[in-house]
Amino acid sequence: MRFDTENSILSMSVTELASYAYQRENPKILEEKYGFIKTSVTSEFDGGYDRVYMPERHGIALHNIAQTDSKSAVSFVFTENSQTEVPLEKEIVCGDIPLRIQGYADIISYDGILYTVEEIKTVKYFPSTLSPFSDPEHFAQAIIYAFLYADAMSLGEIKVRLTYVKRSNGDKISFTAKFTCVSLSRMFDALISRAYTFI
């Protein structure tokens, strides 16, 4: 968080806001409640360098490959381009404090019907209990980006996809669900409320 003296506004990143998320229900129940669909993709990616000694570079490379794969798939299937590292922000007044929430969505794509906001996370392994709610902050980041985009574009509905990429081999597991902008707005407001205490 930082105060922008030139514009007299407090800036908070999406990651910082997402840190106020916490687990309240059983992840499996939440997965069913929101209708998440799970998909898996096996990869033959080998990275081209020693991933034991350079795990950060390997994670970044996998992140970039996931973005490129998604862009290619959308372009090929729907003849529409997806966007990567999309800058998003929203200015609000929290109590009496002007606040700007900002960040970069990993991927935003369009299938001809709905937009999808995708958040990519690289992980060491896939636990048997992996779900979109395994880490509340990951889910919150995806939700915030989806809300910022849906709000800016005046969308009624939008898909949220949380993709986990395994560092060792590039395998992917994605969880996708459709949300209304109204429900995203409620979740966004709840996170702002929790953060407000500490601003």
The termini sit apart by 9 Å
Characterize the largest beta sheet: strand count, sense, and whether it forms a barrel.
8 strands, mixed
Shape: globular
Strand content: 25-35%
Portion of residues in helices?
Answer: 25-40%
Instruction: Give the tally of β-strands.
Output: 8
Structural class comes to alpha+beta
The tally of helices reads 5
* Low-pLDDT residue intervals, each spanning 5 or more residues: 46-55, 70-79
Kindly report the average pLDDT value.
83
Secondary-structure element order, N to C: EEHHEHEEEHEEH
Radius of gyration: 17 Å
Walk me through what this model shows.
- The structure is a single chain.
- The protein has 199 residues and is an alpha+beta fold.
- The protein has five helices and eight strands, in the order ββααβαβββαββα.
- It has helices at residues 14-18, 27-34, 55-78, 136-153, 181-196; strands at residues 2-4, 9-13, 37-41, 83-94, 97-110, 115-123, 157-166, 172-180.
- Strands 1, 2, 3, 4, 5, 6, 7 and 8 form an eight-stranded mixed sheet that branches.
- β4 (83-94) and β5 form a beta hairpin.
- α4 (136-153) packs across α5.
- The longest helix has 24 residues, at 55-78.
- It is globular.
- The model is unreliable at 46-55 and 70-79 (pLDDT under 50).
Compact overview of the structure:
The protein has 199 residues and is of the alpha+beta class. It has helices spanning 14-18, 27-34, 55-78, 136-153, 181-196; strands spanning 2-4, 9-13, 37-41, 83-94, 97-110, 115-123, 157-166, 172-180.
